[in-house]
Every structure is written in C-alpha cells, then in structure tokens.
From TrEMBL:
PROSITE patterns: LTD. Residues 43-179 form the LTD domain. It comes from Claveliimonas bilis. This is LTD domain-containing protein. It comes from the Bacteria. InterPro entries: Lamin_tail_dom.
Amino acid sequence: MMNEKGMSKMTSKENAVLKKAAWKLLSTAVIALSLAGMYSLQSDGAEKESTVVISKFYGAGGKEGVFSNDFIELYNPGTQDISLEGYILGYSSGRIEGMAGSTISSDGIREEKFIDLAGTIPAGGYYLICGEENACPNEGYQIEKYNRQWKGLIIDNQATVTVKLYKGKEPVDMISTEGSSCKDMISENTIVTRSGKRGTEDAYLGRIRTFYWSNKVTGEYEKQYEPCCSYGAADGEGV
C-alpha cells in the first residue's frame, strides 16, 4: 500500500506482526540479562550455601502427560536446613494468549503468577510444588507426595516458560527454556532439569537440559529424574 508521497505503508496485519516480533525480542533480552545475573549469583560459593535453587520442572501444556501433575521442584544445595518463610515462586509463559499454560493477558501483556511457599527444606533436600492434574496413562508416573499444591497452575509444554524464585522482592534463582539450547526438545514428554548428578555437590547448578520420560525408563534413571520431596506437606495440602 502506498501513501500520498509514494512511500509504502504497512497494513494493520503487518503492523501487528511487527509489534509481536518486537515484544518477543524484548522479552528474550530481559530474560537473558536476568539469567546472567542469576548465574553470577550462583557462582559465589557463600551464596550457594545459603539459598534455594530451582532444580527441575515439568509441564504437559494441557495435553496428556507422562506425569499425573505438572510440577516444580526446588533443591537445597547447602549444609543447613533453609526456612521458606518469605520465599515466593513465580511462573510465566510467553505462549499465545488463550493457550494452556500461557500467562499473556488479553491486552498482550506477559504476566507472572505467584505462590507463597511455606515449610523448610533440609540440607541436600527437595521441595515439590504440585500443579494441576493431567490426563495420564496408567503407566505414567503418579505423583503421590508433594509439599505444596498450586491450584490452577498449568505449565506450558513449549520453550516459552520462565520460573523464578524470590526471597521477598529479590530474585534468587531462575530457570528458563526461552532461548535455551534444548528448546527444540521440550514437549509434554520431557522434564526440564539442571545438569549435575543428584546427590553430588554440583547437583542442579549447571545449564538446563531435558530428559525424555517414558514407560521404559529404567530404575537408575527414574531415581535420577523423578520429582522428589524430602518432607511431607508443608501446609496440610500434600501427602
């Protein structure tokens, strides 16, 4: 389309596409900067001893899942128990508005969902936040124990997810699939986890990776990648 001066003029559809691309670019840049800050924070050995990290998460994106529930797992890599009083967990997804797991508002703004945490994570222990139930085959993994239930939480099964952990208003950890090297391997069949072997000093402090879960997972890998919680319910909602 040409204007009075003979210059091309964008249609409303082209303008909308351009705005969406600009928003996606801005979101990616913000996440990259935040991740840099998180990794810088974790490189300090003293800080690693005194805070909690996000070790893994899983989302079926509203589809049939290999786990009975969406979930987020936290880990205490330190040598002392940590109280979760004042800790807040945040979830957001840049998936198209209206799709399962998306937190894009009707105004096109990406929002973040929050839940207050409670209880204590023992040294070297785990804390499991359980989301919405999934349609799950009988051979799927049934989550029976967890520490905190997050009603209404549906985690996206696309490379659009960012999970943040706050202590008060300050972010202390973040894990994101946006722009990650494993983004093409994320689906309702994969767990997103930090690299590092469970039970070791560097467990879940490295880059993220995915693990494909099926009914053929061996006992060794199930022990390594299954969701864990060290105590019973922290608020009376878990088992």
